[in-house]
């Protein structure tokens, strides 16, 4: 099927390439010329495992191209809109400027029978509003939220664990659902559940899924705070409660908390939208989820200060990791970089290393020292903090090897990803998050 994808960031670029890989004929459209040039050459403008391969295949097959010219959307039957919805500069709500602009730019090129499929994460009620704008063209609008995880984005798009399509009431809606079913047929054939809902439900499915995940992380981080006051070990607690299938062990990783371009801004936007709806109380707990999350960053800083017996000035602290999570070069709202900056502001000489995210980090926080090589970054450190659990730090770094590099054997395990006993046995002072 002929498809257009408006917005070629993390979501759109992956979606365009993935749709081409399952056989569709796709044009990806973005206003950013540099991004489009890079994608058109088959080069991913950000680090995402597997993306360069599907891009190259798509372009080679002739089924995938990229342009800045929105007029090239004409002729596609489904137009996916995957532009960003960042947090507003002066508030918690989502900034819908890019979504509105994308829809407006598309209007002259769509007509009867076309379907506009929103993928961006938006406040509930947005789709109904946009539908009013799209209807006069004879096209219809559906909402088809995206659940991909960065680092697994290609796989999550080609083989998602569920497909959700919110459609308007009436015949237009059911025809649009059928068209989307056709787009995703290969996935549906493999058993992926395909859920058709109304517009508001589809919008809410997305934000409530992220709110649930954020809540789960903050729940275990709250338990970490209690563990810290009692001498308990939150990692054992997580494993023990995680054996209950109703709870499950995933997303019970206590540590420095969640960051990224989605969970933090999505819970804030959700709370802001609920307030507009007069239902602020219903998700009032999300403010607590946010507060717990931010407290963990402060806690990590306190542990580094403790490790260095209160004196940071003149001390070298090495931060292992800058990305908000491993397998990504995304530093949006990264707990790692937030902690690095706080340590820097307290007077420490902070060295940051990361396998993929240094370039992005340097652009945002030029005042920190960046070192590409892990061992070079560790050399001379008075204290080390693991802030992003890349395999290079969590699996491949032995305490014996690290001992040969650092000046002081003090480590804060911001992701509870190390074997504490192993590091202690090698003479390290080990600090976990919510662990004795
Ligand atoms: C998240 C959701 O997981 C996706 O389903 C969703 O599609 C996406 O947002 C989105 O809205 O686009 P992502 O931002 O890629 O995906 O990252 P996650 O894997 O959810 O991790 C978020 C943060 O939580 C990371 O900083 C991670 O380190 C942290 N985390 C995760 C924990 O602190 N503990 C855990 O147990 C798990």
List keywords for this structure.
14 strands, 436 residues, Rossmann fold, binds uridine-5'-diphosphate-glucuronic acid, alpha/beta, 6-stranded parallel beta sheet, 18 helices, 2 domains, globular, single chain
Notes on the structure:
With 436 residues, the chain is of the alpha/beta class. It has two domains: 2-192, 3-Layer(aba) Sandwich (Rossmann fold); 198-436, Rossmann fold, CATH 3.40.50.720. The protein is built from 18 helices and 14 strands. The strands form three sheets. Strands 3-2-1-4-5-6 form a six-stranded parallel beta sheet, with helices on both faces. A six-stranded parallel beta sheet has the order 11-10-9-12-13-14. Strands 7-8 form a two-stranded parallel ribbon. Strand 9, helix 13 and strand 10 form a beta-alpha-beta unit. Helix 1 crosses helix 3, helix 9 packs across helix 11 and helix 12 crosses helix 13. The longest helix is centred in the middle third of the chain and has 32 residues, at 199-230. The radius of gyration is 23 Å and the shape is globular. It starts with a strand and ends in a 5-residue tail after the last strand. The mean pLDDT is 97. Uridine-5'-diphosphate-glucuronic acid binds at residues 121, 146-150, 210, 213, 217, 251-253, 255, 257-260, 262-263, 324-325.
Strand order of the largest sheet: 3-2-1-4-5-6
- CATH homologous superfamily classification of the largest domain: NAD(P)-binding Rossmann-like Domain
What is the SS-derived class? alpha/beta
Bound compounds, each kind once, are: uridine-5'-diphosphate-glucuronic acid
Domain count, please report it. Answer: 2
Estimated helix fraction: 40-55%
**CATH A-level architecture of the largest domain:** 3-Layer(aba) Sandwich
CATH class of the largest domain: Alpha Beta
| CATH fold call of the largest domain | Rossmann fold
Mean pLDDT: 97
Shape: globular
User: How large is the radius of gyration?
Assistant: 23 Å
Distance between the termini: 57 Å
Strand coverage percent: 5-15%
By DSSP, the count of extended strands is 14
Continuous helix count: 18
Low-confidence stretches: none
